[in-house]
Amino acid sequence: MDRRQRKKLQVQKSIVDVAIKLFIEKGVDETTVAEIMEGADFGIGTFYNYFQSKEDILKYALAEKISEVKRSLEELNQSSANPPQKISQLLLILGKIFEENQQLFKLYRNQSLSPIQPPHGPEFRDFLVNVIREGQENGEFRVTIPIEMVTEMFMGLIQSAITSRSLIPFQENLEYKLDLFLEGLTEKK
Q1: Which residues form the signal peptide (predicted)?
Q2: Tell me, what CATH number does 120's domain have?
């Protein structure tokens, strides 16, 4: 990446960071492009070199988080971890990203924007199916449970932790659910 491209990315990141902060403080509708650009220390015209609307900023920020999940998936896929470890790491990665970005996800949902390919899209599903299949072939996971049921339960874990009304902190809640899930999935020896 050359110097000009790095500078463009820095400007874009600055605009996004200021905008998200203002969106969280004031709301998307109540935040103006002028306020965003004043906070980022750029002219209003610069905004339109990068984004067409405030909603585009939300889409961009969410797409960045999805890319982060996909990179983590690729790293995990290349790792030497066994299937139970991969399932655990995957859930904890997703939980961490959700926990760190709850306000961004809430903003996006509240705007009723058109869906962006979620992190549990085809690549995610393929990864999960392959890990489960590998675990079943290695005798680490029960073969009596269909893969479709395991993937459905896994996604339910994430949703359950996200919507939990428990007083247990989010990450700890997720870890308890993961233990229960793996206990039922692993082959008894």
Answers
A1: none
A2: 1.10.357.10
Tens of pLDDT, residues 15-38: 999 999 999 999 888 999 999 999
| 98 and 153 co-located in one domain | yes
- Cα gap 8→115, rounded to integer Å: 26
The three-state (H, E, C) secondary structure of the chain, written as one string: CCHHHHHHHHHHHHHHHHHHHHHHHHCCCCCCHHHHHHHHCCCHHHHHHHCCCHHHHHHHHHHHHHHHHHHHHHHHHHCCCCHHHHHHHHHHHHHHHHHHCHHHHHHHHHCCCCCCCCCCCHHHHHHHHHHHHHHHHCCCECCCCCHHHHHHHHHHHHHHHHHCCCCCCHHHHHHHHHHHHHHHHECCC
Residue 108 CA to residue 114 CA, distance in Å, equals 9
Count of structural domains within the chain: 2
Q: Which domain holds residue 84?
A: 55-185
**Is 155 in the same domain as 62?**
yes
pTM over 0.85: no
